[in-house]
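Supplementary Note 3. Input sequence used for the single-chain structure prediction.
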Amino acid sequence: EMKVLGNWDKTPLPKRDYFEINEYVSSSESDPRAISRLRTSLEGNCNGENCKVLKDLGPLDLIHDMWDSQCEHRRKKMECSYKCACRDRECPNRTITDKKRKVMGTDVKEIESWGLDPYTCRNLISILPENIP
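The predicted structure, written as discrete structure tokens, is reproduced below.
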């Protein structure tokens, strides 16, 4: 059983301003060696029946580090491809390939949280810029 030693400081950290990055170029896109390492020969071939609706793709099973899904590609943590039976429609399991981004307020909800452990918090703070123009 975990115990908190001493008093727990419940004073929230000061809010840090940030800006959304919508356009970026991955550093791996300019490195031919990285592109070859990231390339895969795996090709999709799903029947298109289990990837019609996002909610049917199932939740992420954090214990087993896999999606609890009937869609075989989702279970293997890979996107459907244009060789799958779902190629003729917008597939919710192809958002990275189709360059669909999440929209703040629609797909993503911003909330204040105490849920970051110190290690994650330090790492996030180290990559966020101090002064945002």
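The two ends are 45 Å apart (CA to CA). The first helix runs from residue 32 to 38.
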